[in-house]
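ingest -> validate -> predict -> emit
validate: passed (alphabet ok, no gaps, 242 aa)
predict: started
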Amino acid sequence: MNSIGIRKFGVCAVVISTIALLAAGCAASPESGSDESAATTNSEKDPAATSSNGESAAATPEDTVFTQTMVTVKEDGTLDIKTRPITLAEEIAEREIREAQAAGIPMQKTFSVDPGCAGSSEWLYDGNNLTGNRVCISHPWCLSETVDLTTVPRSTLSCGGQVYTTYWAGGVAGCYLDRTPLSVPVNTNQVRSIWTGSGTYYGTYLIKDDGTTSGSYPNQNWQYPTINVSGRSVRTYGMAAC
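emit:
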């Protein structure tokens, strides 16, 4: 007799046998407070998602080099933008340090964390599960600021022998099969996971170019490992008064 295993996921079941594999498609319900894109794959919503870092941390070597972009919003609203290479091993170590600090657990640091990417900053990644290229957004805690992601560089991309700068929203985001550049609308961003700041924030939001909110992430110092919503800007909120 063939052995049959049954695993239930909410109202859906997947039945697996040694003779046949029958999968019933289920749309998972997003958790309360998360965006609906948690149940949708990147390729279903974003034609350029294949150019983002879609690999899991387990499948990516820890010496893989990504780009870290540090954005500091100044008092006058202008942006100070700096970039540097960062390895997956560094990202993992920084996450472990931040998690330990949030839990009140002493942890010896073996390297210096960039002030622009401290735990009080918003950490946005172009890969799921807090991996890939990262942008850190830091601003005065008493201000509510909106950062236009179409102006924030993410990485570089070569198509047909020409190197392009990619941005966190809009612009060139991939290559067609004939190696010509693939451009996406301004509301198409590359944010696939977020770790909200640990300061006294009222929330982090993704905003479309018409000013409407497309994604809401209200908790401070909270990990949102799967995101895929439109929006060209990210808005963060500080304290009500300085």
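The longest helix spans residues 88-102.
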